[in-house]
Write a structure and sequence with these properties.
alpha+beta; four-stranded antiparallel beta sheet; two-stranded antiparallel sheet; 8 strands; 23% strand; Phage_regulatory_Rha; Rha family transcriptional regulator
Length: 196
């Protein structure tokens, strides 16, 4: 499944009173709906009065009607209000927004999960950290002090941490094969022995 980045599936956003907001006009224009229908949807949202007050503000907007300007009722809404409203919309743009929102939520959730898993699998050395080596029966075989600037972790935690910090972790035989394959593609003989 391909999803669009969240930034391509939302209407125009402005900053008002240090909060990111959008308007019912921007929502109507973006989703190809009549503004009066968006207003009706907002008024009929089945949310608590506390949520409505925190996330929707009735505003007067000056609009152009032919050569005349007139004041028109509209709503300014926060991100939470926008999401609550749009989750009830139908159509292709609404579906793209919902998919992108879900994909972004899942990406953030996975990042948090990996971060928590990596940090719980890592033991940072200090003056009191000791690694205990056990034999196959669970008896202490040996102990060693973990130096202050060291970390004890699983390989997966180590790999996650270094990749997150911009490093590439690749097996030597995979790197050798990649190097030799590149040499073959440009017509040179493979020069690195495969360490298998």
């Amino acid at each position: 499944m391909t999803t669009s980045p969240i930034s391509t599936v939302i209407p125009e956003i402005t900053i008002h009173n240090n909060r990111a907001v959008t308007t019912s006009f921007a929502v109507a224009n973006f989703f190809g709906k009549l503004h009066k229908n968006v207003l009706q949807k907002i008024r009929s949202l089945d949310c608590s009065p506390v949520f409505m007050t925190a996330n929707f503000s009735a505003v007067e907007v000056t609009t152009q009607a032919g050569f005349d300007e007139r004041e028109t009722e509209a709503y300014e809404m926060t991100k939470d209000g926008f999401v609550f409203l749009v989750m009830g919309f139908t159509g292709k743009k609404a579906a793209r927004f919902k998919e992108a929102y879900i994909a972004e939520f899942n990406r953030m959730e996975e990042e948090i999960r990996q971060k928590n898993a990596a940090s719980s699998d890592m033991i940072f050395g200090d003056s009191r950290t000791l690694v205990i080596h056990l034999d196959e029966h669970g008896n202490i075989k040996s102990t060693e002090k973990v130096p202050y600037d060291s970390v004890v972790c699983t390989f997966q935690s180590f790999k996650f941490w270094v990749e997150r910090n911009g490093w590439l972790v690749i097996r030597r035989d995979d790197l050798t094969e990649l190097f030799n394959e590149t040499l073959r593609k440009i017509g040179l003989p493979a020069t690195l022995p495969n360490p298998q």
